[in-house]
Write a structure and sequence with these properties.
It is a single chain. By secondary structure, the chain is α+β, with helices and mostly antiparallel strands. It is built from twelve helices and ten strands.
Length: 297
């Protein structure tokens, strides 16, 4: 499959057959533009936001195929790869915004971009909007379009970036709503996470793999690390990493009760390469070193 590298707005606009009105941002209606080149891998160097209307065709991103329809938003960050495989007569629909990272450099939005973690979600973790939410997103997009159609002046960049931030803040709000309304699904993920944690420390994986990572559990749950982390934090108030460390400390306390095991042996069984790292983490969590804790108990 041929690869296409898209590092500029102009390159993407050329693929879509639309004019470049601004070198760092483009907004367009997919229903009025051709589909992307078929059977291609597209390496994106842009932030991409798509509001889909109707069937979206066959699009692969990471390990998952996109198969949602009306009222769905997809976010793709720079450095990601998408595969396009559509029927020959396929016509895309919905609105799209793509912008280069340089657009927001030196702005307050640039400092916040890492907080919009949905740019690293998988396609099967897309945002599903209500009718009212769709209207709000379209209104925000129309504001960006209106500003792009005005003559450029010293306020243009600031206003464009402010509208982008407004759009992304809406998306954050709607994702928070989606986490809440999918409580039964989230509880299932939490239960599976707990079982995976228990299984990990009951096996020899700590000795063979090392300390468990958030990415390890996310992969086993078929979720992206960011989506998994955000879900756990929204549901429990603690990060996934904090849950892992709490489990690790809880198991460590049980092992420390066994006087026949050295503290170095316990550290190794838990997945630490160096006992001093175990001691440092344990003291941070409990206020005692493993040796002090053993003596107290």
């Amino acid at each position: 499959m041929e690869s296409i590298y898209v590092d500029t707005v102009a390159t993407y606009n050329h693929l879509k057959g639309i004019p470049t009105e601004h070198p760092l941002i483009t907004v367009f209606d997919n229903s009025k533009t051709p589909a992307l080149p078929n059977h291609k891998k597209i390496h994106l160097g842009l932030y991409s936001i798509f509001l889909k209307e109707g069937h979206c065709g066959e699009l692969w991103y990471g390990r998952n195929k996109y198969d949602y329809d009306d009222g769905t938003m997809v976010f793709i960050g720079p450095g990601q790869v998408i595969e396009v495989n559509n029927e020959e007569e396929y016509q895309p629909s919905g609105m799209a915004i793509l912008f280069h990272p340089d657009l927001i450099k030196g702005t307050s939005l640039a400092k916040k971009m890492d907080s919009y973690s949905f740019f690293s979600y998988e396609l099967n973790e897309a945002l599903h909007l209500s009718i009212k939410e769709q209207e709000m997103i379209r209104d925000a997009m129309s504001k960006i379009t209106y500003e792009l159609n005005l003559p450029v002046d010293k306020h243009s960049k600031e206003i464009l970036v402010n509208y982008l931030e407004l759009l992304l803040n809406y998306c954050t709000r709607f994702y928070n709503r989606q986490f809440i309304t999918r409580e039964h699904v989230n509880n299932d993920v939490l239960s599976k996470f707990e079982n995976l944690l228990n299984s990990y420390f009951q096996s020899d994986q700590p000795q063979t793999i090392g300390l468990p990572s958030v990415a390890h559990f996310a992969e086993h749950l078929n979720l992206s690390s960011n989506y998994f982390g955000d879900l756990i934090k929204k549901e429990t108030g603690k990060t996934a990493q904090e849950h892992i460390q709490l489990k690790l400390i809880d198991i460590a306390k049980e092992k420390i009760y066994d006087p026949d095991k050295s503290l170095s042996q316990i550290a190794f069984e838990l997945g630490f390469k160096y006992p001093q790292h175990f001691s440092r983490l344990f003291k941070k969590a409990t206020g005692y070193t493993p040796k002090e804790y053993r003596f107290l108990n």
